[in-house]
Amino acid sequence: MAVTPTHKAGRRLGRATRRRAVEAVVRTLIYAAGLLSIVILAAIAIFLVVEARQSIGEIGLDKMLSGTQWFPTGTPKLFGFLPLIVGTLAVTGVAVVVFVPIGIGASVFISEFSAGWFKEGMKSVIEFMAAVPSVVYGFLGVAVVIPWVKATFSLTSGMTALTGGLVLGIMSLPTVISISEDALHAVPDALRQGSLALGNTRWQTVYKVVVPSASSGIFAGVMLGLGRAIGETMAVLMLTGNAAVMPTSVFESVRTMTGTIAAEMGEVVYGGQHYSVLFSVGLVLFAITFLINLAADLVLERQRKRWRR
């Protein structure tokens, strides 16, 4: 039986209708997923506030944030968050100093100056590093980094903020390198060819054209690496000495907020004041990470607007 033009038009119309229906379903699912992520984030914040309200009401959030002593089992009990916050910032600061230059440099080398089996081998190594459990990095830190820091800087103990930061910086490298390399790889080859045609060397093309074009992706990789460092628990428990005192340098033992929660949550009375205080620590950590990510989003949006001009 011959297919008439009317039948062909009907089939095309049917396919177009099905395509629009599928697109509508996919669009709805995407919107729902985005809304669900916002709901989950809000639910986490509400949960932390509810669990922390006892300590906030009895002690006061301002008093906990400004307190410089952490003695939860003393008489009287002291719940000062400042040593934990400063310790977290010290360890994270060292990690940032490690993973930002090394991570960006490695991603530029892999994307722009390597090729073939060597490039694929390096990418495989980076992916393997990302899969290594944090406790293994902690063991390596105990066996290698702690003795090195102690001997190099003539310290009485190698368990310092510097030690934890060095290991956290290494742990964050796979995240920074992978995302930054993907951003560099996404830069169109036409930009590279145009720069070379204007007389720029390969290196000049990289730092004048390629890296600025991929700056948003590189910055996103750095922020994810920062999130990995600030939220790490096991490695800092093993390497920083867990001394809840106000540090004056990175060569002293510190305790981080995540380390405090992990070390003490299993020993507190459920529903007690100490239990609630640990949730207040988690609430402060949540607020810090939220503000960091918000600032990063604002910077990225400003960069996007600048590149649209």
Draw up the topology in text.
Layout lengths: L4 H54 L2 H6 L3 E2 L6 E2 L2 H31 L3 H16 L2 H19 L8 H25 L3 H9 L4 H12 L1 H16 L3 H6 L17 H8 L8 H36 L1
Antiparallel strand pairs: 1-2
Helix pairs in contact: 1-12, 3-6, 3-9, 4-6, 5-6, 6-9, 7-8, 9-12, 11-12
Walk me through what this model shows.
By secondary structure, the chain is mostly helical. The protein folds into 2 domains: 5-58; 65-308, MetI-like fold (Orthogonal Bundle), CATH 1.10.3720. Helix content is 77%, strand content 1%. It has helices at 5-58, 61-66, 82-112, 116-131, 134-152, 161-185, 189-197, 202-213, 215-230, 234-239, 257-264, 273-308, and strands at 70-71, 78-79. A two-stranded antiparallel ribbon has the order 1-2. Helix 3 (82-112) runs parallel beside helix 6 (161-185) and helix 7 (189-197) runs antiparallel to helix 8 (202-213). The longest helix is centred in the N-terminal third of the chain and has 54 residues, at 5-58. The chain is globular, with a radius of gyration of 25 Å.
Key terms:
309 residues; MetI-like fold; 2 domains; two-stranded antiparallel ribbon
